[in-house]
Amino acid sequence: EKIAKYRESEPEKITTVEAYGTYFYLFNVTKAPFDNPLVRNALSLVVNRQSIVDNITKAGQIPASTLSLMTESYHPDFNNEIYNPDKARQLLAEAGYPGGKGFPTFTVIYNTADAHRKIALAIQQMWKTELGIDAQIENQEWKTFLSTRQDLHFDISRAGSISTLADPQDFLNSYTTGHGMNDTGWSNAEFDALLETAKVETGDERYTLLAEAEAVLLRELPIIPIYYYSFTYLKDPSVKGAKFNAIGRLNYKDIYIDHSEKK
Questions:
Q1: 135 three-class SS
Q2: Measured in Å, how far apart are the chain's first and last C-alpha atoms?
Q3: What b/e sequence results for 4-40 when a residue is b if at least 16 CB atoms lie within 10 Å of its CB, and e otherwise?
Q4: 3-state DSSP call for residue 225?
Q5: Cβ–Cβ < 8 Å for 215, 234
Q6: What's the rounded Cα separation, in Å, for the pair 18 and 21?
Q7: Residue 253: Cβ within 10 Å count
Q8: Which residues of the chain fall short of a pLDDT of 70?
Q9: Using CA atoms, how far apart are residues 90 and 112, in angstroms rounded to an integer?
């Protein structure tokens, strides 16, 4: 909440860098109507990610169109839309819920934190306004939240991943069949096979396979990518030698205090 204030009054003390991580929502695809990719895509296409990062998170986050982040090595052009309410309404009608008629009330769960609550409230309103469907939101303490997700006792859930490898396979592997982090119930043989092959490939061929796997994920959408994380640091100007990176690892051995700049 204080980021904007520091940027205005003491910009020399604040640093924001892109993080190799993504904030997203999970569908429980074992439950109707979320077993239908048309429904999942419709709900994704009315989430105004730009509004969320501009008005809620406000820390330099970037709207997410993929699960994995783009890097110098991995930058396929998926050309996938992330905001198109008109198309979303068409997809929902094709799924059998024109104007949201007949769509069951469902619940979005999130672990207790004010930022997660604000995002859930915003998305709840987007779904209501654009699609005419009703979502409830429910906060849960961390242990209960994890158990609810792992047991697939939810409709839609807040989620997020930050990788220490800065590699797309670290994210994508999580949604293979039977993986311990795949809290969606989603399973796709093509996706699994592409990632299995990628494990034994290197270079451009490996990244091509990962991109093909991600394209399957984005077509099926067992998740809704919302934004890419950022790390924001508050640092006194007397602290020198600190280098910030996308995986949140600081080079502590190189950091020192310049006492001449201490006030």
A1: strand
A2: 26
A3: eeebeeeeeebeeebbbbbbbbbbbbebebbebbbbb
A4: strand
A5: no
A6: 9
A7: 7
A8: 262-263
A9: 34
Helix (H, G, I), strand (E, B) or coil at 162: strand
Query: What token pair was written down for 20?
Result: 């190799």
Report CA 86 to chain centroid distance, whole Å: 23
**Helix and strand totals (H; E) in the chain:** 9, 8
DSSP 46: T
6-to-52, 238, 242 alpha-carbon distances in Å:
21, 17, 19
Using the structure block, give the residue that is written with the tokens 């110098």.
72
Residue 241's Cβ-side half-sphere holds a number of Cα atoms within 13 Å equal to 8
Beta bridge partners of 14: 234
Please tell me the distance from the alpha carbon of residue 12 to that of residue 124, in angstroms, as a whole number. Answer: 37
User: Token digits for 158?
Assistant: 């807040």
Provide long-range contacts, Cβ within 8 A and 24+ apart, for 98-101: 99/132, 100/131, 100/132, 100/133, 101/132
From CA 115, how far away is CA 198, in angstroms rounded?
36
- pLDDT reported for residue 234: 93
Q: Tell me, what's the pLDDT at 73?
A: 92
Whole-number pLDDT of residue 262: 66
Report helix, strand or coil for 29. coil
Peptide bond connecting 11 to the previous residue in cis, omega within 30 degrees of 0: no
- Do residues 214 and 64 make contact, with C-beta atoms less than 8 angstroms apart? no
Strand-pair partners of 233: 15
Q: Write down the residue that tokens 């005419």 correspond to.
A: 132
* Residues pairing with 75 in the sheet: none
Which two structure tokens, joined as six digits, stand for 151?
């047991």
